[in-house]
């Protein structure tokens, strides 16, 4: 408020002892008719301010790129160590256990059948005995869990 009074005092003409004339009544402005050659009015949102306000504080400097990336890198590291690394370790352990399945191991298939491995057919298939004298060929990828590592069954042909 004081700034306004100071500005008015500086711009007001020096008053004399003579009485001032009464102010003239305001004249109403006639509406301007748009002309064909005039440009359309620019909306206020697209106007550009050419000089900063003298009373406004200077704009804060933009944070540099490293400052913005530090939180992102921090969250990425947390996700890696809490989620991705343990999951990769479990996947590796499961692949190793499936690769090392041999005769005598008790396995659970992804369908829920529990049986004992009687024969390894090739790298992709094993033969599992799910009941007495009932054998099924199962893909190694269909084995969900290796429950117990059994002792390998001796070949009957080798013992003769």
Keywords:
160 residues; 31% helix; 3 helices; five-stranded antiparallel sheet; alpha+beta; single chain
Question: What can you tell me about this protein's structure?
Answer:
The chain has 160 residues and is of the alpha+beta class. The chain is built from three helices and five strands, in the order H-H-E-E-E-E-E-H. A five-stranded antiparallel sheet has the order 4-3-2-1-5. The longest helix is centred in the middle third of the chain and has 35 residues, at 65-99. The protein is rod-shaped, with a radius of gyration of 44 Å. The N and C termini lie far apart (114 Å). The relative contact order is 0.08.
**Rg over alpha carbons:** 44 Å
Percent helix range: 25-40%
N to C succession of SSEs: HHEEEEEH
Widest sheet: strand order?
4-3-2-1-5
The biggest beta sheet reads: 5 strands, antiparallel
Average of the residue pLDDT scores: 77
Low-confidence stretches: none
CA-based shape: rod-shaped
Number of strands: 5
Q: Could you give the distance between the termini?
A: 114 Å
Give the amount of beta strand, in percent.
15-25%
How many helices? The count is: 3
Q: Assign the structural class, choosing from mainly alpha, mainly beta, alpha/beta, alpha+beta, or little secondary structure.
A: alpha+beta
């Amino acid at each position: 408020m004081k700034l306004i009074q100071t500005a008015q005092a500086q711009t007001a003409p020096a008053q004399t002892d003579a009485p001032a004339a009464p102010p003239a009544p305001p004249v109403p402005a006639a509406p301007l008719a748009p002309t064909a050659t005039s440009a359309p009015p620019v909306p206020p949102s697209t106007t550009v301010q050419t000089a900063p306000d003298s009373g406004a504080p200077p704009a804060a400097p933009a944070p540099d790129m490293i400052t913005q990336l530090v939180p992102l890198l921090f969250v990425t590291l947390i996700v890696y160590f809490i989620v991705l690394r343990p999951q990769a370790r479990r996947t590796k352990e499961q692949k190793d256990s499936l690769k090392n399945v041999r005769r005598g191991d008790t396995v659970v298939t992804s369908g829920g059948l529990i049986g004992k491995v009687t024969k390894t057919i090739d790298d992709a298939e094993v033969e599992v005995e799910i009941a007495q004298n009932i054998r099924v060929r199962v893909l190694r990828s269909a084995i969900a869990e290796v429950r117990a590592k059994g002792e390998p069954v001796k070949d009957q042909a080798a013992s003769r």
